[in-house]
Design a protein that fits this description.
The complex is a heterodimer of chains A (382) and B (234).
Chain A (H helix, E strand, L loop, with lengths): L1 H16 L2 H32 L1 H6 L3 E4 L14 H9 L3 E15 L5 E9 L9 E5 L9 E5 L15 E4 L2 E10 L10 E5 H7 L9 E6 L5 H10 L3 E4 H15 L2 H30 L1 H10 L3 H37 L9 H28 L2 H6 L1
Parallel strand pairs in A: 3-8, 5-7
Antiparallel strand pairs in A: 1-9, 1-10, 2-3, 2-6, 2-9, 4-7, 5-8, 6-7
Chain B lengths: L3 E12 L6 E12 L3 E5 L6 H8 L7 E6 L2 E2 L5 H11 E4 L11 H11 L4 H14 L15 H14 L4 E5 L7 H15 L5 E6 L10 E6 L2 E7 L2 E2 L2
Parallel strand pairs in B: 3-8, 3-9, 6-7, 7-8
Antiparallel strand pairs in B: 1-2, 1-4, 4-5, 9-10, 10-11
Helix pairs in contact in B: 3-4, 3-5, 4-5, 5-6
The chains are: A alpha+beta (382), B alpha/beta (234).
Chain lengths: 382, 234
């Protein structure tokens, strides 16, 4: 079948690419639209991924929190009985508290820097990061902190083991360097210590448990645990549910999602306008040739296949160029800005691909309609 | 005289309805034979192009029939008519309608490609046809780089590349000077026309009448004279 159409498609290809100005205009239109769509969606995806960074980095299966909490960085401290109750629920293997707080540290140079402080359960150190330097037991040493070596690491003057700093007039010492799966959204370095030290060094509210982390005995125990926690007036979310809640918060309650959606829609409309109009002009200019082909003996489905091929080829090439351009720019940006929050996901690529298919479809539809309307008799009449 | 290639019976074609109705062709009947060079002549607006379109399967008549090699073409389905045009009829359009984005040889290969012939084979055969029209050295040029006469010859090469039984030329000399026009028609008469092919030329250029085997004169949509081998039939 394809072999039969090969010659006709080759004619279509030559008609398209040999009209260089139109072909370039078409490619630029689609490439630009794809580039903008991918950039916008990737930035948003990157921000969403980073907004849920603590959830990924700690790795607990169930997170217990106040129902009003909508992201990991602004928790509402819970009383100790929540932890006690959680531990007593059937199906809970273990439950530990974790503390998330913010502080200002005074660096060796005298500069102040805001930091996130994660206070791990003193007994279990559940949620600890992977160390790339230092020993885990050193966290129990006096004034000990682990520093996370991520894109924000240099803001703490790239400390090594033994480096000292001040935190609320307390001495702090770096005893380990850790790595985590994902950096945070707000460009703030992260320190890990024990929960006890964290609430001692940082001014806190009456309650000091930001979240209770639960490990269920079996996956099937999760619904029951969630039900029991709900009876306490709190909420137990699985890791995936918490990530979704955070995403929903940034998407629907901060205006970020709507802005990105609008920009993506504008990119699509711009791409559709440029490509649609250029393709329409291309078809109009070639209309008499399509009419001549019809007069010579080309059938309607052959002409349709030519137009579909031209639109699809341009769309796919533009898609590839747009994705390549966006990826290249993101790589370049990461080289210059380590904390650049942007990621290309399969969802983004699929969404942009569908948009490009729509652009190709609309452009083809306009062209096909025009070509089917032309009568060979019009060619005779000139 | 050879067998009948095209037989038109009582062809009528009108455009528009009511007050705007215009009848372009009024009950025209004629026969064109293999081995014959037939001219359809007449002033502008006499219905020549409309008649040409009807006998070549491009425009459906309101009344009458067209028999091509024994088949009533207007009883065929649209795809069958397209196949008939592709396999039996070659066209040379008034404005040539060559593809400026393709090379000369690729233009000539179009009917072969539409017949699903392999691309390379089509180009190879097309080169032979370009040789027939004396343009093999122009094969890789784009048509707009050729003169008017050369473009006309490329259009002829394209029309005969599909090896049609019937060749139709619409005003072939309209945009050529007198000398080039005569050379083109002489070329068609001596090199393209043969016993197995019928050539129909629509023209109002009296300078080329000398090459015709038959001349059908039209005026106001009607046939007003038919002369075959210098003998008046009508």
């Amino acid at each position: 079948m394809i072999k039969q159409f090969r010659g006709i498609l080759k004619i279509a290809f030559k008609l398209l690419v040999n009209d260089k100005s139109k072909f370039i205009a078409l490619l630029v239109g689609i490439t630009f639209a794809v580039f903008l769509m991918i950039m916008m969606m990737s930035m948003f995806s990157g921000m969403l991924a980073r907004s849920a960074a603590p959830v990924f980095n700690i790795g607990a299966k169930i997170w217990v929190m106040d129902p009003a909490v909508n992201n990991a960085t602004s928790s509402i401290p819970m009383p100790d009985y929540v932890l006690s109750n959680a531990k007593s629920i059937n199906g809970v293997k273990y439950a530990v508290p974790i503390y998330f707080g913010n502080a200002l540290v005074k660096l060796k140079s005298g500069a102040y820097q805001a930091v996130n402080v994660v206070g791990l359960d003193d007994a279990t150190l559940f949620g600890r990061p992977e160390l790339i330097a230092g020993k885990i037991e050193d966290i129990y040493a006096e004034n000990a902190f682990f520093v996370v070596k991520d894109s924000e690491f240099r803001k703490l003057e790239s400390p090594s083991i033994g480096a000292q700093f001040e935190i609320n007039d307390h001495r702090g010492v770096i005893v380990g360097v850790a790595k985590v799966a994902s950096s945070g959204l707000f460009g703030v370095p992260t320190l890990y210590t024990t929960r006890h030290r964290a609430i001692t060094y940082i001014p806190t509210t009456r309650f000091t448990t930001s979240f209770v982390l639960i490990e269920p005995k079996r996956e099937s125990d999760i619904p029951f645990i969630q039900k029991q926690i709900k009876k306490l007036g709190y909420q137990a979310l699985t890791k995936a549910e918490f990530v979704e809640k955070i995403s929903d918060f940034y998407t629907y309650q901060t205006g970020m999602g709507m802005n990105v959606l609008m920009m993506t829609a504008i990119s699509f409309i711009v791409g559709l306008s440029i490509s649609g109009q250029t393709f329409y002009t291309f078809i109009l200019e070639n209309l008499e040739r399509f009419g001549a082909l019809k007069a010579i003996g080309a059938k309607s489905h052959e002409l349709i296949s030519m137009i579909l091929f031209q639109a699809s080829f341009t769309a796919l090439l533009g898609y590839g160029l747009g994705v390549g351009l966006a990826s290249g720019l993101m790589m370049l940006a990461r080289l210059r800005l380590p904390s650049y929050a942007s990621q290309v996901t399969y969802t983004n690529l699929t969404f942009a691909f569908v948009m490009v298919l729509i652009i190709a479809g609309v452009s083809s539809y306009i062209g096909v309609r025009k070509v089917l309307q032309i009568q060979p008799f019009d060619i005779f009449r000139g | 005289m050879g067998k009948v290639a095209i037989k038109a019976n009582g062809l009528v074609k009108w455009f528009g309805e009511g007050d705007t109705k215009t009848t372009a062709v009024k009950s025209v009947s004629f026969e064109a034979n293999f081995g014959e060079l037939l001219y359809i002549v007449g002033p502008s607006g006499s219905g020549k192009t409309t008649l040409l379109s009807m006998i070549s399967g491009v425009l459906k008549p309101n009344e009458g029939s067209v028999i091509v090699e024994g088949n009533d073409i207007w009883k065929m389905k649209s795809d069958e008519i397209a196949d008939l045009r592709l396999n039996k009829i070659g066209f040379v359009f008034q404005d040539y309608h060559l593809f400026p984005r393709l090379t000369t040889v690729e233009n000539v290969a179009i009917p072969l490609i539409l017949k699903k012939m392999d691309w390379d084979e089509s180009l190879s055969i097309s080169l032979d046809y370009l040789e027939i029209v004396g343009l093999q050295n122009r094969a890789q040029l784009q048509p707009f780089k050729l003169s008017g006469g050369e473009q006309q010859r490329v259009a002829i090469a394209r029309a005969i590349a599909g090896h049609p039984d019937i060749l139709i030329l619409d005003e072939p000399t309209a945009s050529l000077d007198g000398d080039t026009g005569r050379k083109i028609v002489e070329f068609v008469k001596t090199k393209i026309l043969n016993a197995d092919r019928c050539v129909i030329i629509v023209t109002h250029d009296s300078r080329i009448y000398e090459y015709a085997d038959s001349i059908m004169k039209m005026e106001d949509g009607k046939v007003i004279g038919f002369e075959r081998n210098s003998v008046n039939i009508i």
